[in-house]
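Troubleshooting: if your tokenizer reports a length mismatch, compare your output against this known-good record of 198 residues.
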Amino acid sequence: MLKIGITGGIGSGKSIVSEILRLYNIPVFDADTEAKKLNDRSPVIREKLIACFGKEVYDENGKLNRKRFAEIIFKNPDYLRKANSIIHPEVAKAFSLWAEQRNQYPIVAIEAALLFEADFQEYVDKVIAVYSPEALRIVRILSRDNTQESEVRKRMEGQLPEDDKRRRADFIVYNDPSHSLLQQISDIFARLCPPGAF
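Known-good structure output:
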């Protein structure tokens, strides 16, 4: 089984690339979505987050109070690192189990904005970085989310710089009007896979 990591900055188009892979019958594990589920359901994460940040990070229904949690961890880089050190290993375990359960597929993928920051590259064979120019990413996010440009830039600053992602990736997919996503993905998998596998 070939395991592929998909990463890129906010607004780069990771989800579009993931959807194209799904059209080719490649299962994709969405790390951000799964992390949210685990934050609510994992007793390991719950116990450690409460020990570090207090009971108020969970609401009366036993679900993570995301607003309160964000207020705590984004004010202090050390708190953010601590929270990630609790959550990311559990997401990695969930991905490994998920992949094992799909061993009938020749290729699986994980989409993760923080793939390198979380060391998820250790669990995959190849990494695809999705790249879009910053100005285009900002336009996309502003049209998608109800937010301000200053907030978008703050979120961008909290991620690994795009140049670092591109340098560390095995392949780069350019998501802008002058490049075809389908053609780029087809070319990548033609290089990675034997004929007929993709």
